[in-house]
């Protein structure tokens, strides 16, 4: 075999993402280690941050490996309209919560805009689905888990 004249190339984007993920993992591990909450029995509240930190570390290492091997695949071109729908859905969710319209309507707005971003054009049907799912999630969180979610006119009915 003939020696290759190619110099090894490092994918800078993959390297940056890998280092960023490892840094986020390290911060999560350090922050979780400093928690003073202990479990009375069972796994305890530190288990999930450690699991997420471990996942971030694994993803960071895999990105570093991809950076020195073949690099990341080239991304597809951005669909500006879909991104705009996603951003408007997030803005609508924030506005619904900020102006007191409640969680159920906020979830419906976010769901409808996200479905539209993925190419679905049935806005009324998606709005109805979003309301139904928002109501279901609201009832599970508030009635079963006894957590507090933003209240609006629809939530006051329940």
What is the topology?
Layout: H1 12-33, H2 47-68, H3 80-98, H4 103-117, H5 123-144
Helix pairs in contact: 1-2, 3-4, 4-5
Concise synopsis of the structure shown:
The chain has 158 residues and is mainly alpha-helical. The chain has five helices and no strands.
Task: Provide a descriptive summary of the structure in words.
Helix content is 63%, strand content 0%. The protein has 158 residues and is an all-alpha fold. The protein has two domains: 12-68; 80-157, no CATH class. The radius of gyration is 22 Å and the shape is flat. The model has no long low-confidence stretch (mean pLDDT 90).
Number of strands: 0
Helical content class: 55-70%
The N- to C-terminal Cα distance equals: 75 Å
Sequence stretches where pLDDT stays below 50 over 5 or more residues: none
State mean pLDDT (0 to 100 scale): 90
Strand proportion, as a percent range, falls in: under 5%
Order of helices and strands: HHHHH
């Amino acid at each position: 075999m003939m020696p290759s004249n190619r110099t090894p190339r490092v994918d800078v984007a993959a390297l940056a993402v890998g280092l960023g993920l490892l840094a986020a993992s390290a911060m999560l591990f350090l922050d979780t280690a400093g928690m003073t909450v202990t479990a009375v029995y069972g796994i305890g509240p530190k288990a999930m941050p450690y699991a997420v930190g471990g996942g971030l570390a694994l993803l960071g290492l895999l990105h570093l490996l991809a950076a020195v091997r073949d690099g990341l695949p080239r991304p597809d071109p951005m669909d500006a309209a879909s991104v705009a729908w996603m951003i408007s859905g997030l803005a609508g969710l924030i506005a619904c919560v900020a102006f007191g319209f409640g969680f159920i309507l906020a979830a419906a707005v976010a769901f409808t805009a996200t479905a539209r971003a993925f190419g679905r054009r049935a806005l009324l049907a998606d709005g109805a689905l979003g309301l139904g799912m928002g109501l279901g999630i609201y009832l599970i969180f508030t009635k079963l888990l006894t957590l507090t979610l933003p209240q609006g006119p629809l939530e006051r009915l329940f």
